[in-house]
Specification:
three-stranded antiparallel beta sheet, 11 strands, 239 residues, 8 helices, alpha/beta, single chain
Length: 239
């Protein structure tokens, strides 16, 4: 019998937890609920979690801090944030931390289900793929396209969220070509994102920290003013 997808639901409101628990369980998911970030940390340490559904605004440790903890320790866990309507700052910080998606409250359960399934498809593919032969060298790193891995100069896996990998893959498949933010979103199959928000820019910033010798002066992923980004395989300087 295959592994049943497990979703960790973290929300301090009992009614919200119960509603999400019942709804997701009715659609075939294994669910685990936590009323706080500390309880969620314990559950994540003792269970195989595929996706964490986190409320941002919780008393004590908030969802953003918990998301950072999960991303640092469990790179393959997908993270979806639940934000209050109109809280752009929370969304931006969540994306910076490495959340895979977000949904403002109140939300339609059907939209939530669609978002979760979309994120899980990407995460599942990244987790199950074997190391492949199709590789792209980026400085000291190697991007293994078939294996969905970024490998550093010492041969270690570099922690990346599925969305970060998809974005880097989209750029790597189109070297020396300027891609608009909208084109990058389409190539990385993120059609639900708004190309005019900061989602692409924030992920490029995170990726640069992982592949660039000097992220403040990028050589491999360069910004083309008023247009988008270009991947330069050799990292040749333009000056």
């Amino acid at each position: 019998m295959g592994h049943k997808t497990t979703i960790l639901i973290v929300d301090d409101e009992p009614e919200v937890r119960e509603t999400l628990d019942d709804y997701l369980a009715a659609h075939g998911f294994e669910t685990i609920c936590a009323e706080s970030a500390s309880a969620a940390r314990e559950l994540a340490a003792g269970h195989r979690i595929d996706l964490a559904l986190l409320d941002i605004r919780m008393p004590g440790e908030d969802g953003l801090s918990l998301a950072r903890h999960l991303r640092e320790r469990y790179a393959k866990i997908a993270i979806v944030m639940l934000t209050s309507a109109g809280t752009v700052l929370d969304r931006v910080v969540g994306l910076e931390i490495g959340a895979d998606d977000y949904l403002p409250k109140p939300f339609d359960p059907r939209e939530l289900l669609a978002r979760l399934r979309s994120v899980l498809r990407r995460t599942s593919h990244a987790s199950s793929a074997d190391l492949g032969a199709e590789r792209v060298r980026i400085g000291k790193c190697i991007l293994d396209l078939a294996g969905h891995r970024l490998i550093d100069g010492e041969g270690n896996d570099v922690s990346m969220s599925p969305l970060e990998f998809d974005l880097l893959k989209a750029l790597a498949r189109h070297p020396n070509r300027t891609l608009t933010r909208e084109r990058i979103l389409n190539l990385s199959q993120q059609r639900g994102w708004d190309p005019f928000d900061r989602s692409v820019d924030l992920r490029v910033m995170r990726i640069r920290k992982k592949i660039e010798p000097d992220p403040q002066h990028p050589r491999y992923i360069r910004t083309v003013r008023n247009e988008g980004y270009v991947f330069v395989p050799g990292g040749e300087r333009s000056d």
